[in-house]
Amino acid sequence: MARIRVIFESGEPERVIEFDPARAPFQHDGKPGSILDVLLGHGIHLEHACGGNCACTTCHVIVKAGGTKLSASEDSEEDLLDKAPGLTPTSRLGCQAVVEDPDAELVVVIPRYTINQIVSEHGA
Amino acid sequence: MALEHEARIARIVEHAPDTRSLFLGGPRIAFRPGQFISCLLPVGGETLIRPYSIASSPEEDDLEICLNLVPGGLGSPYLLSLPVGAPLRFTGPWGTFVLDRAPEAETVFVAEGTGIAPIRPMLRRALATATRHPLRLLYGAESRERLLYRTELEAMAREHAAFRFAHVPGGQLRDEVARRWVDGDADRSRRFFICGVGAIVPALRDLLRGAGYERRAVQYEKW
User: Fold this and answer.
1) What ipTM was assigned to the predicted interfaces of this complex?
2) Does B91 touch chain A (CB under 8 A)?
3) Which of A75, A78, A93 is best to mutate for the B interface (most B CBs within 10 A)?
4) pLDDT (tens digit, 9 = 90+) per residue, B10-30?
5) Interchain CB distance below 8 Å, A117 and B93
6) Contact yes or no for A5/A16 (Cβ under 8 A)
7) How far is B57 from chain A (nearest CA, A)?
8) DSSP string covering A53-110, please?
9) Residue B130 above 70 pLDDT?
10) Between A117 and A70, whose confidence is greater?
């Protein structure tokens, strides 16, 4: 079984999910078996304004441990991550990072902020 | 959780039997040209999240989204079945595919089908800045008759010397982009904004970046 320890910067209590990656998808948004898929399928809310289609950064997560057990990021994900607030070297988009190792042990932080209703002064 | 807005469908414009614009009245939200809203659709006993680019400009009262029927999809049949007056919940605006200031170089917009939606307000904003840099739109669609906002685009081209647009028949976008801006000259100072559905978008991204355009000069949104 794979395991994800989820830490919330918002201060919510931590959660630990155990799951079998082979059973993905766990719901219908994001890549099957992605962090977004696993979290939503286990009752943990992770914002995903674009529906998990790799078109925004609202599912930005920071992978504190186990990052090598995830699928490699593609250009589309990297391009979007560039625009994520609070970007770190281990940032991923939850909708794209797929848990590939059946015995993966991950620690994932859900940042407090995402780019959401941020509108510059240029926006009327 | 994201802040939810509740709008009502104020008006529907049918572009083609399978393509419509829905005008959402109610909350007036601030957004940047190119952003999208995330519609929350009650379908099959659950809430589907479906993103739609905003096709209108921030200065307009109603938000316009433009969509076509996706065969086998769940969200688009629901949205296209809604009558005028129906409520619609959404969050947003979202997204970082934006242009809201004067272009600093020749700017090329490439749209395919309903991918024109976010580009339309970008283009309007760019033209409103009275930029001295050329603005180009290459618009891929089956036929010229299938171009969305064709009359408006033609009027823009008449009124603004800096702006030109061309229709490209379906399936020929990549070759036309290569012909004009890869093989055509050695200038690599242009900026690109690309929007469409599916594999054509990363194909264009890779073509342009592979030809020497800066990574950040090639912005795109793939639906």
Assistant:
1) 0.86
2) yes
3) A75
4) 999 999 999 999 999 988 899
5) yes
6) yes
7) 9
8) SSS-STTEEEEEE-GGGBPPP-HHHHHHHTT-TT--TTEEETTT-BB--TT-EEEEEE
9) yes
10) A70
